[in-house]
Amino acid sequence: MLENKLKEIFGYPSFRNGQREVIEGLLTGQSMAAIFPTGAGKSMCYQLPATQLPHLTIVISPLLALIQDQLEFLRSHNIAACGIDSTRTYQEILTDQQEIRNGKIKLLFVSVERFNNERFRNFLKEIPISLMVIDEAHCISEWGHNFRPDYLKLPKIREKYQIPQVLLLTATATPKVAKDMSTRFDIKEQNIIQTGFYRPNLDISIRPLDSQQRISYIKKVLDDHLNEATIIYVTLQKTANFLSNVLKEEGFSCEAYHAGLKMEERDAIQCRFMSGETPTIIATIAFGMGIDKSNIRNVIHYDLPKSIENYSQEIGRAGRDGEKSRCICLGNENDLGVLKNFIYGSTPDYQAIQLLIELMSNQGNEWHIQLIRLANETDIRSLTLKTILVYLEMMNYIKPSRSYYASYKFKFLDDQNFILQKFSGERQSFLASIFNEAKKAKFWYTLDLDHFISMHGGDRDRVIQALNYLETQNHLETQVSNLVEVYTLTNRITSVEDLSSELKARFHNKELDEIKRIDQMVQIFETKQCLHQQLSEYFGDLTAIDQCGHCSVCKGHVVSFKSSKDTSIKLNKETFNELEDFAEKYVEKFRQRPSLRLQAKFLCGITSPHLTVLRARSMNGYATLEQFNFNQILQALESTTNESLLPF
Length: 648
Fold this sequence. Notes:
alpha/beta, Rossmann fold
């Protein structure tokens, strides 16, 4: 029966390993979790059930690229599906929502952040939902990699909309993470389907090399396997650009891909790689999520990956067609400092947390937040700030109320007078006041809604409705900016200090766990046992063979990441002079002295909102000690006894 549906709808003759068990569970009314390797067919576990379930299947996915790939696949098989995201126009979203109400669309893809939108939440109240699918479900666990704070809300969202079933999907869940994420959704242990991790067509090798050796090795791989699809992963954007330029000078066809490029550039590069026009991509971890290219023959890690979870996800993009492929890690012990400093940089200072809690406690019943502005005010990174807000929500101090955009931009597609002549009386006067109040640039007009309402009265909704209506009539094009999130304060804070300390402790514990994850990765890479067997055991798969015979360890190459270099830090007079110059500029800008932690971040090259505002990258001393561990630098600053050297 199920095989017939699979062939009839999707054209596949049989299920892959694990798919049938998951699909049968869903179609008999159970919630399920599927822990399958990258490229093993997790998406089919909801695609087929969605065509058979009576109501809407809502799929929550972390990346727009993942959503777009799934939509293209479903539409190619004549399955009605849509996604609501920032690229869609207001009218397109309204049309899709009506199709969902009418039952014509059975699959809806959204990001988890979409649930912060009050208009979307109100829409969902009208819609019966059969199944909630959570892709990359490990993001819900604070003990997993790529933790996303908004994922913590999903169990309550399921409860609020009375969604009877849940499907969790991930490729990278350790036993601890699998238990955590399934417990949050009351998924029975027997309904967690995990397939084998071992893939015999992947040759894994660990070869720690210095920078020059890495480049020579990569050139040889590309020469030996000319024009084969290859991904080279790096940690930093500047490394991606550097390596791309070096390889291009040697005549190799390659491109750099990272978050510093515009979205259109990234999309174009990805298309050229997918088509084979560009065989080699040098990329940060921004590349690869949802990439369904079956013939990637080489995945090379120029730098050490961030964790075993990241590593397994990235090498999982190789050889999806079952043909032999190579996964080569060239990073050495010098990469560890940079990896750990990423983690230290995400941990907020106690003083920053305390300032945030004080700001919150001084609000009335509502707290209006512009995330970037608040990040700059508190010197807490945006993602970390979002995590704190979710913690406060889970602790019942705040509750999201609504969100709105403080600024609207519009561009006229018709003459202003032509538009105004289509209206009369008060409506014409109202539109004229909007047009007159907006500040004109070359093509776009910017309207500050708060200022407009204070000057002309009325309400926000009427202005937005007017602009939306004019856009649907093709009279103008709109853009929104400066998202304001409104929270209702639900509980009084009895002690700012106690709450700040509790939050600081949570981040400290998370920091320790992330550092431990890096150390575990090094231990696996240094193992004297089969790498495939070690990776399988890490993810709780005890079925893999003891020796694969084709990894670098099985071939007799055991490596060590222990450095022979002296890693002790001695801060000299020049370093303190540079810190003094930095401190003077910081005091001038922020009217306070930089903490020792911030000084350590400066020397390490770890960014923070305050350092970005101050343009610290251009100052003498910035990142001069980036090869050292952040904690080493901090301890060196704290233990300095020569007061004459201190910048204050």
